[in-house]
């Protein structure tokens, strides 16, 4: 997995992917939702040998996701890239941070994952370090409720 900020900012991204493929490593990329996340760039990384894409989706609406990420437009860029990658035959993993902003949102995210298609959906609980201390960590009781409720989401 090539990750860390926005790997699409690396001018040598396709070379790194091709090198991994040549070495027999299955390579995936985990870009941020930015204007660089275009169908053309996705096609380039797929053609270089990337087999998958890992995207963060921290809310089922633009208001929730963009608010959590602090950048307007991230939700749309993420959904567009998700759909483009799937149309190209790439495997997609969706990662969701569950925090105060999205306490009741996971069922709607599950519906998006079902409707758009993903190989894997991973839910993470916010770890209150750094910027995360201001982002609404859940109480232990809320965390347990989310975990117990998860059996009825689909």
From TrEMBL:
Keywords: Iron, Iron-sulfur, Metal-binding, S-adenosyl-L-methionine. Coiled coil: none annotated. SUPFAM superfamilies: Radical SAM enzymes. Residues 1-112 form the Radical SAM core domain. InterPro entries: Aldolase_TIM, Radical_SAM_PqqE_MftC-like, rSAM, rSAM_sf. Pfam families: Radical_SAM. Transmembrane segments: none annotated. One of its GO terms (molecular function) is iron-sulfur cluster binding. This is Radical SAM core domain-containing protein. It comes from Streptomyces capitiformicae.
């Amino acid at each position: 997995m090539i990750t860390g900020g926005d790997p699409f900012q690396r001018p040598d991204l396709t070379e790194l992917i091709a090198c991994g493929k040549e070495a027999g490593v299955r390579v995936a990329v985990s870009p941020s939702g930015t204007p660089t996340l275009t169908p053309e760039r996705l096609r380039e990384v797929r053609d270089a040998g990337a087999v998958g894409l890992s995207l963060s989706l921290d809310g089922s609406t633009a208001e929730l996701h963009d608010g959590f990420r602090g950048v307007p437009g991230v939700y749309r860029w993420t959904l567009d890239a998700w759909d483009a990658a799937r149309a190209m035959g790439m495997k997609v993993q969706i990662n969701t941070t569950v925090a105060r902003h999205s306490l009741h949102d996971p069922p709607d995210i599950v519906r998006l994952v079902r409707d758009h298609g993903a190989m894997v959906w991973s839910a993470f609980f916010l770890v209150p370090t750094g910027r995360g201390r201001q982002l609404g960590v859940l109480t232990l009781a809320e965390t347990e409720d989310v975990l117990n409720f998860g059996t009825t989401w689909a």
